[in-house]
Specification:
By secondary structure, the chain is mostly helical. It is built from 3 helices and no strands.
Length: about 90
């Protein structure tokens, strides 16, 4: 793969952390910067694709009513709270 040099500016704290990471792993700063950039670009690409899918769904009229979304959220929260209560009761019983 062809590479290209690109100068950049970074926070001093970030560079210190990067140096510590490079030292701990035996890898170069450049290795970790490239890995971080690739991960960031992949995440942004994924996010943009999901946004485009959502916009296409909205344009096609495939929408979920707000109250349905809120009801599902309330249901999930209630389930999580029930699990917390059960786990707390179980740990107190032991």
């Amino acid at each position: 793969m062809a590479t290209r040099t690109y100068p950049g500016r970074f926070d001093e704290q970030d560079m210190t952390a990067l140096d510590q990471l490079a030292e701990a792993t035996g890898r170069s700063r450049n290795y970790h910067l490239n890995a971080a950039l690739k991960a960031y670009l992949a995440e942004q690409e994924w996010q943009i694709a999901r946004i485009r899918e959502g916009l296409a769904d909205a344009d096609a009229g495939r929408l979920t009513p707000h109250e349905d979304v809120m009801a599902e959220g309330r249901r999930l929260i209630a389930e999580a709270r029930s699990r917390q209560v059960a786990a707390s009761a179980e740990s107190q019983a032991s």
